[in-house]
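User: We ran a pulldown and think these components assemble together. Before we commit to crystallization trials, I'd like a predicted model of the whole complex to look at. Sequences follow.
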Amino acid sequence: MCRWIAYSGTPVLLSQVLFQPEHSLIDQSLHSRMGVETTNGDGFGIGWYPEDTEMADPAVLRDVGPAWNDRNLQEVAHTRSGLFFGHIRASTGSAVQHSNCHPFRSGRWMWMHNGMISEFRRVRRDLALAVDPALYADIEGSTDSEVMFFLALTFGLPEDPPGAVARMAGFVETTAQSHGTRHPLQMTVAVTDGERVWAFRYSSEGRSRSLYVSTKVDALRALHPDVSFLRELSDETRLVVSEPLGDLPGRSYGVVQPGGGVLHRFRPEYPEGTGARG
Amino acid sequence: MCRWIAYSGTPVLLSQVLFQPEHSLIDQSLHSRMGVETTNGDGFGIGWYPEDTEMADPAVLRDVGPAWNDRNLQEVAHTRSGLFFGHIRASTGSAVQHSNCHPFRSGRWMWMHNGMISEFRRVRRDLALAVDPALYADIEGSTDSEVMFFLALTFGLPEDPPGAVARMAGFVETTAQSHGTRHPLQMTVAVTDGERVWAFRYSSEGRSRSLYVSTKVDALRALHPDVSFLRELSDETRLVVSEPLGDLPGRSYGVVQPGGGVLHRFRPEYPEGTGARG
Amino acid sequence: MCRWIAYSGTPVLLSQVLFQPEHSLIDQSLHSRMGVETTNGDGFGIGWYPEDTEMADPAVLRDVGPAWNDRNLQEVAHTRSGLFFGHIRASTGSAVQHSNCHPFRSGRWMWMHNGMISEFRRVRRDLALAVDPALYADIEGSTDSEVMFFLALTFGLPEDPPGAVARMAGFVETTAQSHGTRHPLQMTVAVTDGERVWAFRYSSEGRSRSLYVSTKVDALRALHPDVSFLRELSDETRLVVSEPLGDLPGRSYGVVQPGGGVLHRFRPEYPEGTGARG
Amino acid sequence: MCRWIAYSGTPVLLSQVLFQPEHSLIDQSLHSRMGVETTNGDGFGIGWYPEDTEMADPAVLRDVGPAWNDRNLQEVAHTRSGLFFGHIRASTGSAVQHSNCHPFRSGRWMWMHNGMISEFRRVRRDLALAVDPALYADIEGSTDSEVMFFLALTFGLPEDPPGAVARMAGFVETTAQSHGTRHPLQMTVAVTDGERVWAFRYSSEGRSRSLYVSTKVDALRALHPDVSFLRELSDETRLVVSEPLGDLPGRSYGVVQPGGGVLHRFRPEYPEGTGARG
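Assistant: Here's a predicted model for the assembly, 1112 residues in total across the polymer chains.
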């Protein structure tokens, strides 16, 4: 049960978003130290598309300790980027190791996840076997989140992100239900190709984790009048967080892209011939 | 602001004390994840006197991540010992690194601390200069806790533990007050030579951190009727914790030794010619 | 390409075997720092059966840094045991993470490996699919070594260790050859159930890594006349190392058990209906 | 006994200098794995002045494992900078911890060191006491290298780098000789304020570690005709390394700055009233 933030818009220093706002991602981990909520101390990661290089792929910094005391994170946050992800992890059982930290990367794609597949051990093998054999050897860790990413890649993520995520969710539900898990999936997922960000939230049970897509930077400015850097951002800038700040419908997804963001209803797509329903 | 536990008595597996009781040290770190209290996720350490070796010095396992997810800690806790320390750390500013984790060791002596010297940076140099020059080069970290240990060693810890700790506390107060810090010291300290355990609590301001010296194992059995291993312990077994479980007087110290434990009033000893008072 | 040591016999402190001998495992890593040979700095692990506990399963300490500078390893080596493994890792490509460090454990069984499956990425999926589905979810890392262990478990390790390892080797060769890898397997493997130790060496190409099974403790005493603790060992004590000290036949395995050790010829067992040959 | 590289010139990706050249810093650590020379596996660090930020201070990434297997280093090396340091560490005794890794930083200044103060434990206290009391509390680690940096800061580094380093070297020699260490100092040091880089080499005994100041980028191009990025560099670009590539006089220092680099003779400055000589 983790938390994440996705930023897209006017290039800023990562530190301005990750550390400076009163309710920043790292601040949330600090607040949780004060007893307000669950500690996310089982690793962290940031991924960003470097400005001013020819590299299309994102760079990713991950480590296994808490974000709140990591000095390398504070240093690297002095990087400027117009599209980046940040994630803090609370393990639901799998090992605390580098390869289990988000965001995950494949080529120019990045993926991060908050949530879980209930009773994942039961279905881990069946889900892994459905991954494209050409991709299987790239799985490095042992999390449900990474397998979900590889399933989405298998089901056509580069061509049709919403469709691929819908097919992933449908396949996870069908598989888990065949193993007797009734409401297997809770997720808020963010995925990007370096140009657009797709954000999804969904729960098999109908009780979704919160997802906040800021449709206008005006809203952010109104929420954080004290955060001066917000005033310098273009109107297209968006911040998406896996946090209970908003009041979106429970099953939804958003796209953030140059020109603005839109919100859609999310439905899993089930494999043909199955009667599974979320 | 850390927490610690000291065990002395019938040899047991460390895991029985560190992991199994409902309110074990690690359990406290787990509970804190649930939002009950401050997270102690900035490192941990255990120190024990190995049974069945000729070694008089304690072995110490320390690491910089949270105790709750550390697999090596769980493994090494399958060690049996009749005297051991456990500590979980919440940094008050100094680096999260191996040499800043407790317990600290010098020969057969171990030391651990919960609390702080307020505005430590102001007095760090003066305190370090007072350390016996023959010991100075053994300081490896940057915490107030380690310097307090080296001051106690300098002031005669092996010969007179209560006196050495009193002189250390008095010196810290005098030094800090000369730099304008009015109530500089809060501490619960445990120190051992492998045979006896001394536990101290003291606050310059008169508001001490809690310290619980279980004067009888009966009390523990009554507190934890569900913990079966307590029934197998000798009556001399003691558990001392830096936790608000007891109602001891605010400035006190205890000694745990074969034959039983006793409790005394603690007073700092100030350097001659100073008017400092706690 | 790693190195390992297996000890079985009179209970000793781990440090006596791991650190004190002139050509100890850690000493080999130190020598390699001096330029004599390949550095094994990509993690390490030790596994031991604790004396004086009811626990039948081994305890395992692993970490991702070099063994030569790890303080926790030095501390925990003050443990006494009559059967333990030690391993230092040099990654051949897979991630440097806790779950990729040896020894691996399943219940009371431990496994460690020096060598590699050539072009492992090509066969990783096929090998993983052959693992017993009930065990698949326990795979935590991404190494060939761990998959080899799980295949041996799948093929009957607890009932027939030499047979299970032979079937594992045969299956790996058959699978890899079907993907076009001609000489896929090099291995020296040690495996134990806490009572006996089996050690195997094999190479598809017929050029085996060295494996030294000390059939008599006399031989060790003669090799290391300076190592005083060897004089205190029972005649049944054995030390097996993955090092070029001996002149055993290239395809062989040994069993070390109370009463002495024996050496056999090792042949892979190929799946029926395949023409594969090592 | 470490190694380092300092780059000043046309902004490049750190990876182009740290990873790509055939004899890059990381390549040296890889070669050392092949047995050519001493392993530098006890930590690493890079420091760079971020482009395109208002921040005058350098960012620093450091970690305690080997550079050759560190994934975060590979990721962060996709940063572009016109002035950066890289360092790989081989501990001569002090702890392997974050705060002992180079480069060290104070404000906009960075410092890195290859070499050692012989018998450092004897003089550690005397050297630390000579550090400006206002700076003492910023010492975080336990190395000779960090104390040398703080002494140079104390002796006027910002105003007069060559003079401050000379006074530091003289003070170290005088102090160590008063403790009976005849030839205490070996060093190759690089220090920068973000605009210029000063590089020093000196040995009390007259046998200096090598230091190569590339006075012309032409020389580099000639040495590495295969490294294409060298062709894109301005003529002012310089690379300074702590390696035996050159044939400079044994006691020397160089300055690299916009406009070119110059080389001088280095002499320690001894405290008045002492007869110490290097």
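Chain B has one domain: 3-265. That may be worth checking against your pulldown data before setting up trials.

User: Thanks, that helps.
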